[in-house]
Amino acid sequence: MEQLLKQVTEHFLKQIIIESIHPMEPIQVRYYPKPWVLLGAGNYAAVFYHPDYADYAVKVYAYGKQGLQEEAEVYRLLGTHPAYSRCYYAGDNFLILQKLQGTTLYECMKKGIRIPPQAIRDIDLALDYAVSRNLRPHDVHGKNVMIANGRGLIVDISDFSKQEDCRMWSDFKKAYYKFYWPIASRFVFPLPGFVLEGVRKGYQIYRRYKNRTAAAALRS
To answer: What angle separates helix 168-175 from helix 193-219, to the nearest 10 degrees?
Structure first.
């Protein structure tokens, strides 16, 4: 752990180039040194790991992005739970986390890997646990949850301290049980990336419309 921390602070952070282009889109990773590996990028940060420290992931927040301390606090409140990672260290703009092994639901659909109902139930139970810890699960979707050995894991908890309601997971489950599982229970096939991105963009438009409609109804 001490060697990893030294590697991150003295070398890695001085070389990577990441930036936020649009608040509703993943940040752009312009450069990172080898042999570091990019695991993924969200709207606030990018996550990397080094092959020599395979049990750890380093989450680096883009310049100007807030929320690191809140995320560290969420990890503290969650404590130890099999469906969540753990936070080992919080720096000024990075976190060192337990690296979860698995495949995101987004990648499962892209690669044609079956998503079993057990994984969905596991995620439901993990979200209930978060609520019991006085948290409000937020931004839970196909890119933020994964499967490992058929069980569900939650990868990103950075927005669990937000107070507003979020319907992403409940909407995902409705689509899963209504459209995905009736087909995937019999056979699975890979979905092209452009199809999945089209669904993601369409969902964003749909949710903005529903939110505006609900707000207008409250005002009237």
So the answer is: 130
From CA 64, how far away is CA 205, in angstroms rounded? 26
* Same domain (yes/no): 153, 120: yes
User: What confidence tens digit (pLDDT) does each residue in 7-33 have?
Assistant: 999 999 999 999 888 766 788 999 999
CA 181 from centre of chain: 22
Q: Is residue 19 part of a domain?
A: yes
Report pLDDT digits (tens) over 85-141: 999 999 999 999 999 999 999 999 999 999 999 999 999 999 999 999 999 999 899
The number of residues making up the chain comes to 220
Q: Which residue is it, tokens 């006085």?
A: 134
* Residue 155 CB partners (closer than 8 Å, separation 6+): 85, 100, 104, 144, 145, 146
Give the separation between CA 162 and CA 43, rounded to whole angstroms. Answer: 15
Q: Are residues 94 and 150 in the same domain?
A: no
Tell me which residue range forms the domain holding 42.
2-98
**What's the pTM value of the predicted model, to 2 decimals?**
0.85
- Other C-beta atoms closer than 10 Å to the C-beta of 111 total 12
Strands (E), the chain: 17-19, 28-31, 37-41, 45-49, 56-61, 87-90, 94-98, 103-104, 145-148, 151-154
Bond before 35 cis per omega within 30 degrees: yes
